[in-house]
Write a structure and sequence with these properties.
With 156 residues, the protein is α+β, with helices and mostly antiparallel strands. It is built from four helices and nine strands. The chain has one domain. Strands 1-3-4-5-8-2-9 form a seven-stranded mixed sheet, with helices on one face. β6 and β7 form a beta hairpin. It is globular and about 40 Å long.
Length: 156
């Protein structure tokens, strides 16, 4: 599976992306399958979100001193594009080994990022996610909590 490299910089508007955090110890494929069945989405594993730059390591990762200057870290990602309604959804594993993609969201195991015109009310989506047996917690996250917002765009 191919990865996508991180490199873009700009601020996002609150209405450009919706972010939901999920606490679940399930593998990404099981979680995607459950979400697909519940919400009639078609999340599919598209590869890994790849970090290959030492500039981000101090911001993003809990690293030990033996980490090489340049390293690669992979975060599994599933994606679904709804071309009719003009939005796309990504399910990203926020934790990979001892690394965390968004340090400020370290309590969440997974993130759902929704780009585009999304017709669901956030409370509806949260209630649907919370009803799934493998999800312990689901919460909407304000984009203002993300310090390095360029990472939200970097894989697009």
């Amino acid at each position: 599976m191919s990865g996508r490299s991180v490199i873009k910089e700009r601020k996002l508007e609150e209405n450009e992306v919706k972010i939901f955090g999920i606490v679940s110890n399930s593998p990404i494929h099981k979680l995607a399958w459950l979400i697909n069945n519940k919400l009639e989405w078609n999340l599919e594993r598209i590869g890994d979100l790849v970090i290959e730059d030492d500039r981000y390591k101090k911001i993003l990762f809990n690293l030990n001193p033996e980490t090489p200057e340049r390293f690669t870290c992979r975060f599994p990602i599933c994606s679904f594009v709804n071309e009719g309604d003009k939005y796309d959804i990504d399910l990203i594993k926020n934790k990979s080994d001892s690394n965390i993609f968004f340090q400020e969201l370290k309590n969440f195991d997974y993130l759902i990022l929704i780009h585009g015109v999304f017709n669901y009310l956030p409370i509806y989506l949260l209630n649907e996610l919370k009803s799934l047996p493998l999800i312990q917690l689901a919460a909407e996250i304000s984009i203002k909590k993300i310090k390095d917002q360029s990472l939200l765009l970097s894989y697009k």
